[in-house]
């Protein structure tokens, strides 16, 4: 981990060349201002996903929210939540202008919307897969609400990714906040209900 951090901040002109991961092509969709890249480990070639978010001001609201997301993803562990590997923040020069960029390295995943198109499921097979996936996301939200006392208030198509074994996982914790038991609209069933609307639109 120390080697990873040193490689990123070794010099502004170094960019990410010393990071032990290769950043590949980006996916066509991601959550919010994040960019989701295909990646591999330089050590053994194993696949990873790399997420990045940039801003010109280190106190930019998007960057502040992203730091919250990194902290939450690093500390929250559950089978239906995206598995965190590494993260770092670097100052990278784009021409003559510095950009503050946050990077997250995770297990290899694909945006749900793109995986659904790739699978091309129909009929009962499609319905069964959607039901199975929604159940996995419901478990993740229930864990956040009931065990961690946190609330994920923006569960949508873009916050779900799919693993190589076709499991659905929740991520995008930038807006994850402390659970307020006094607010009736902070309950897990309402989150899952709102999440369910968009699944009809992709079927």
UniProtKB/TrEMBL annotation:
Sample GO molecular function, one term: ATP binding
Name this polypeptide is given: Protein kinase domain-containing protein
Family matches, as Gene3D superfamilies: Phosphorylase Kinase, domain 1, Transferase(Phosphotransferase) domain 1
Taxonomy, superkingdom: Eukaryota
Organism: Kingdonia uniflora
The organism's taxonomic lineage, starting at the top: Eukaryota, Viridiplantae, Streptophyta, Embryophyta, Tracheophyta
Cited InterPro entries: CIK-Related_Protein (IPR051177), Kinase-like_dom_sf (IPR011009), Prot_kinase_dom (IPR000719)
Domain Protein kinase: 21-203
């Amino acid at each position: 981990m120390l080697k990873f951090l040193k490689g990123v901040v070794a010099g502004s002109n170094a960019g990410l060349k010393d990071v032990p991961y290769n950043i590949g092509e980006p996916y066509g969709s991601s959550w919010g201002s994040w960019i989701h890249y295909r990646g591999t480990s330089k050590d053994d070639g194993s696949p990873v996903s790399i997420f990045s978010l940039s801003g010109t001001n280190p106190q930019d609201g998007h960057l502040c929210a992203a730091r919250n997301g990194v902290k939450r993803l690093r500390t929250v562990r559950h089978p239906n939540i995206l598995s965190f590997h590494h993260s770092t923040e670097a100052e990278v020069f784009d021409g003559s202008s510095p950009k503050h960029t946050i990077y997250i390295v995770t297990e290899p995943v694909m945006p749900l919307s793109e995986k659904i198109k790739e699978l091309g499921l129909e009929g009962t097979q499609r319905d069964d897969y959607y039901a199975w996936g929604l159940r996995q996301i419901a478990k993740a939200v229930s864990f956040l609400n009931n065990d961690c006392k946190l609330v994920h208030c923006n569960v949508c198509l873009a916050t779900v990714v799919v693993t190589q074994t076709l499991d659905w996982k929740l991520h995008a914790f930038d807006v994850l906040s402390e659970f307020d038991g006094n607010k009736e609209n902070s309950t897990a069933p309402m989150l899952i209900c709102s999440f369910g609307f968009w699944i009809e639109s992709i079927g």
